[in-house]
Amino acid sequence: MPRSKRRLNSDMGPEEDDRHYKRSRNTVSSDRRFSKTEDNSSFSQKRCLAWFREYTTPDEPELLGPDGMEKFCEDIGVEPENVVMLVLAWKMNARQMGFFTMQEWLRGLTEIQCDTIHKIQNKLDYLRSLLNDPTSFKSIYRYAYDFARQDKDQRSMDMETAKAMLQLLLGKHWSLFSQFGIFLDDSKYKVINKDQWYNILEFSRTISTDLNNYDVDGAWPVMLDEFVDWLKTSKTSEPSRS
């Protein structure tokens, strides 16, 4: 939640008001645990853990939950739905969306050597750049399947979650994404399994927009065969332009 701002007393005179303002600034500065000087220091596991506990509760000191996640995202200046948060979760190998355990937090932030807000803000561009590396992107994409499933006992992902994750990962990069989304809406499919999930990425990377290199006898999941048939039918039924 957004932090409330302290309001100055309107009855104060200019000099008293100025002194109050300076005292307030000094108090804020002295209360900040992670100063710019510390940001230039080497990584400290102790400082990293102290930072983690700013987002936990006394009842669950080793688990950063949804409220803590909201505050963490606010502190680093990133929306929770931003894809960079998925990359960070991948670095931590976090198991459940919306939660970081203390072990996951330490694992990921030790790897990228971040123990303060300022340090992780300086790493955001690096984390985003991993999406441009094909090998890293493939690993992040595959990780997202298990990460995003709400029920870990189920072997498939519900369609609503799957479409949201596909939008996040492929929406800006796959030219057929919007058509695939319409196909899913019109299809019988209510869930996506792991084989389908993995092959959607492969399809988006290798099959041309005109489908000329799609092998109908290839080992694609039936879902993608049906998508190709649906796409061809849709193109055929489009009114011709004079």
Automatic annotation (TrEMBL):
InterPro entries: DCN-prot, DCN1-like_PONY, PONY_dom
Coiled coil: none
Protein name per UniProt: Defective in cullin neddylation protein
Top-level taxonomic group: Eukaryota
Signal peptide: none
A Pfam family recorded for this sequence: Cullin_binding
Domain DCUN1: residue ranges: 43-232
Region annotation (Disordered) ranges: 1-40
Function: Neddylation of cullins play an essential role in the regulation of SCF-type complexes activity.
